[in-house]
């Protein structure tokens, strides 16, 4: 049985809903959590495969393989990776930025954008403070996932910047927030099961793309977001992993190496 990590954010709902509705998932054990938690579990071998932070693969490429043709990405705005700021972004040089504790990829993306696109020097501090409290302590706060999506709908009178949009304006490339990462150990021991999951995920992806309205109507996210807004959000997300997406991944890794966020640029290895 494969142990599959499941990110408990709205951006993963279409894929997991389609997978569980159309395929016999008794062969999988699902473990929920936010990205940072699941990164740790994947690294420890406590789960076999997960849509996990792209930077997690880059930090431990010898331990992992990537499932092909699937990701959680944006080609422009993503709506759920947002920088909330008391100041226009052009005035954030030398300011201290609060960072979500739930993500590693988005945190490093922000560091890259501020350093490479704006040529800023900043201080960063992880925080669990709610947005109003955080903006009293920091000049800006990075939020991801459902928290960012909820706060983005409120706006609260501050400046809001979409990191997917900033990356696309900077590079012209998709940004891959999460890759489907499998441990090499699980891929070797459970190779056929892993390949079956990969095929089912690709089929679930195609089903999800055609079923957003139906999935939204029955989703738990309807407790806090309108159906039309939820469908519009999902339509901003790319679940693909094309050569162009992989170019975005490689560019992100290269920038991270240049800033000292990674020791070396990893080779991208796909499950075959």
Characteristics of this structure?
272 residues; alpha/beta; 5-stranded mixed β-sheet; 4-stranded antiparallel β-sheet; 12 helices; 22% strand
Beta-strand residue percentage: 15-25%
Shape: globular
Number of helices: 12
The amount of helix comes to 40-55%
- The succession of helices and strands, N to C, reads EHEHEHEEEHEHEHEHEHHHHEH
Radius of gyration: 18 Å
Residue runs with pLDDT of under 50 for 5 or more positions: none
Mean pLDDT equals 96
Largest sheet: 5 strands, mixed
The main sheet orders its strands as: 7-6-8-5-9
Quickly give the structural class. Answer: alpha/beta
What's the total count of β strands? 11
Distance between the termini: 19 Å
Could you please describe the fold and organization of this structure?
The protein has 272 residues and is α/β, with parallel strands linked by helices. It is built from 12 helices and 11 strands. The protein has helices at 13-22, 35-44, 54-59, 105-117, 131-137, 145-154, 163-171, 184-189, 191-209, 212-217, 227-236, 243-258, and strands spanning 2-7, 28-33, 49-53, 64-74, 81-85, 96-99, 123-126, 140-144, 159-162, 175-183, 237-238. Helix 4 (105-117) links the parallel strand 6 and strand 7. The longest helix has 19 residues, at 191-209. The protein is globular, with a radius of gyration of 18 Å. The mean pLDDT is 96.
Topology summary:
Blueprint: E1 2-7, H1 13-22, E2 28-33, H2 35-44, E3 49-53, H3 54-59, E4 64-74, E5 81-85, E6 96-99, H4 105-117, E7 123-126, H5 131-137, E8 140-144, H6 145-154, E9 159-162, H7 163-171, E10 175-183, H8 184-189, H9 191-209, H10 212-217, H11 227-236, E11 237-238, H12 243-258
Parallel strand pairs: 1-2, 6-7, 6-8
Antiparallel strand pairs: 3-10, 4-10, 4-11, 5-8, 5-9
């Amino acid at each position: 049985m494969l142990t599959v990590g499941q990110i408990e954010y709205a951006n993963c709902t279409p894929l997991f809903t389609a997978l569980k509705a159309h395929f016999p998932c008794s062969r999988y054990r699902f473990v929920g959590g936010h990205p940072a938690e699941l990164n740790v579990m994947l690294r420890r071998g406590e789960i076999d495969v997960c849509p996990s932070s792209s930077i997690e693969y880059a930090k431990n490429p010898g331990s992992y393989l990537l499932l092909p043709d699937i990701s959680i990405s944006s080609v422009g705005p993503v709506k759920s990776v947002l920088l909330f700021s008391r100041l226009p972004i052009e005035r954030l040089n030398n300011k201290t930025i609060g960072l979500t504790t739930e993500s590693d990829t988005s945190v490093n993306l922000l560091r890259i954008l501020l350093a490479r696109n704006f040529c800023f020097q900043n201080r960063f501090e992880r925080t669990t403070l709610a947005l109003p409290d955080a903006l009293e302590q920091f000049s800006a706060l990075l939020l991801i996932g459902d928290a960012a999506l909820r706060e983005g709908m409120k706006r609260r009178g501050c400046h809001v910047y979409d990191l997917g949009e900033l990356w696309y304006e900077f590079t012209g490339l998709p940004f891959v927030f999460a890759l489907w990462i499998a441990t090499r150990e699980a891929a070797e021991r459970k190779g056929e099961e892993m390949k079956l999951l990969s095929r089912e995920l690709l089929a679930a992806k195609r089903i999800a793309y055609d079923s957003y309205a139906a999935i939204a109507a029955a989703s738990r996210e309807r407790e806090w977001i309108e159906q039309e807004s939820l469908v519009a959000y999902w339509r901003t997300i790319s679940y693909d992993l094309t050569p162009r997406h992989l170019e975005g991944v490689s560019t992100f890794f290269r920038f991270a190496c240049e800033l000292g966020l990674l020791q070396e640029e990893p080779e991208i290895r796909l499950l075959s």
